[in-house]
Specification:
Shape: elongated
Strand content: under 5%
Helix content: 40-55%
Strand order of the largest sheet: 2-1-3
Largest sheet: 3 strands, antiparallel
Number of helices: 12
Number of domains: 2
Radius of gyration: 35 Å
């Protein structure tokens, strides 16, 4: 019988890099909504809904002062959110949104150029930043004879500022710092005024009944430290905000026998 011819194996198709790339599907690039394009479309509706349209800025200025908070409210989304959704998010974090807007206003406008409404908005909404911005806002409010704004600043200082145990006799803020200058109006407060507010004689009298040794150290040294409503002798090691209260010769003399005085019931 005749032999069958061996079948030649089929040649394997050579795979080239070009063919491999054709087979692989390129992943689609994810496209997210651009919040800044949305802002241009939604601006009028948003500033009206969150209650700042009355501030009367130019359109470009409004865009500049709310663009950050607007972008945060939009988030990273692929579908276009409705204005109501964005507005609800802004209003749900209203305090922080208004404070951020207040800071942004100061980035594009000088205080002296603000209208009364705009200045009042800043005074009412600058809270955590009052330590640095309080002096400027106080000065501008005083120039305009706006005692009502100064009172708002005073309330915000008591809540968010560096609260001092001493009141500045010039501006009325509890903002006297350990160097005895006022953080708000810049006035220098005398040692005499500070000791008057402390009522030093009664303060040390009470202290003598608690720590006679410390009291004697104060008399000997002629000064003491005051922190958070507590008297400390000079040998104390303190941190944070505290005040060094220096006694005059007359004061030292008048309180020398204070421990022998009868205590009030």
């Amino acid at each position: 019988m005749p032999r069958r011819k061996k079948e030649k194996p089929e040649k394997e198709e050579t795979k080239t890099p070009e063919k491999e790339e054709k087979k692989k599907k390129k992943p689609k690039k994810e496209v997210y909504t651009d919040p800044y394009e949305l802002l241009d479309e939604y601006l009028d509706e948003v500033i009206t809904a969150i209650g700042i349209a009355y501030l009367g800025f130019q359109r470009d200025e409004f865009k500049e002062i709310i663009k950050d908070v607007f972008a945060g409210a939009v988030g990273q989304v692929k579908s276009k959110p409705k204005p109501k959704t964005i507005i609800n998010r802004l209003n749900s974090a209203r305090d922080s949104v208004m404070e951020a807007i207040a800071y942004n206003i100061l980035k594009i406008k000088d205080l002296s150029s603000l209208t009364d409404d705009q200045l009042e908005f800043l005074v009412s909404n600058v809270k955590k930043g009052i330590t640095s911005l309080g002096p400027r806002l106080y000065e501008e409010s005083k120039k305009r004879n706006r005692g009502d704004l100064i009172e708002i600043l005073r309330v915000n200082w008591n809540m968010y500022g560096i609260l001092s145990p001493f009141t500045c006799p010039k501006c009325g803020f509890n903002a006297v710092m350990p160097d005895f200058s006022c953080r708000i109006c810049g006035a220098d407060v005398s040692m005499k005024e500070v000791k008057k507010q402390l009522d030093v004689k009664e303060l040390l009298r009470g202290y003598s009944s608690i720590d006679m040794q410390g009291f004697k150290e104060i008399l000997s040294s002629g000064y003491f430290y005051y922190k958070d409503g507590v008297v400390y002798p000079p040998s104390s090691s303190l941190q944070g905000m505290f005040f060094e209260i220096i006694l005059s010769k007359d004061e030292k003399s008048s309180i020398a026998n204070i421990s022998d005085m009868p205590h009030h019931p």
